[in-house]
Amino acid sequence: MQRCTDTVVLRILIRGDAYGFEIYNRILERTGDQYELKETTLYSSYKRLEAEGCIRSYWGDETQGARRKYYRITDKGREVFERNMRDWKFTQKPVFIFAVAFQILYMAFMGRTGRVGKSGMGN
To answer: Which residues form the signal peptide (predicted)?
Structure first.
């Protein structure tokens, strides 16, 4: 899950620098509120990505309110993002095939045991 979260953060930062809560909001916005991450998960990702040299942080110069810590993707971060996307595309098809095969086996088993209702799902 860490790699997935890191890839999502890198994807947001490819479009430009952002501060922590802004990244959180962009993730929610782009996923239709379906991918909500805990604050601790995101900040762990920021620390990990920065330690690996994938992002750099800097303090903004806000004149009102608290100063914000902004994050910027590095060249290494772009490379990691591209590699993660290639890996995801490579594994996407086998995972889909496995999921379909599992569903077929599940339906066959449930049909044999008489546990399948009208909807095709177990009762």
So the answer is: none
Is there a contact between 13 and 72 (Cβ–Cβ < 8 Å)?
yes
Q: Quick: pLDDT tens for 27-65.
A: 999 988 888 889 999 999 999 999 999 999 999 988 788
The larger pLDDT score, comparing residue 64 to residue 72, is at 72
Average pLDDT score over the chain: 87
Per DSSP, helices labelled H in 15-58 are 20-30, 39-51
Q: What CATH architecture does domain 2-112 belong to?
A: Orthogonal Bundle (1.10)
Q: Is 108 exposed, middle or buried (0-12, 13-18, 19+ CB in 10 A)?
A: exposed
In the three-class reduction of DSSP (H, G, I as helix; E, B as strand; rest coil), residue 103 is classed as: helix
pLDDT at site 63: 76
The domain limits of the chain are: 2-112
Handedness of CA 23, 29, 30, 31 (dihedral sign): positive
H or E stretch covering 72: strand 69-73
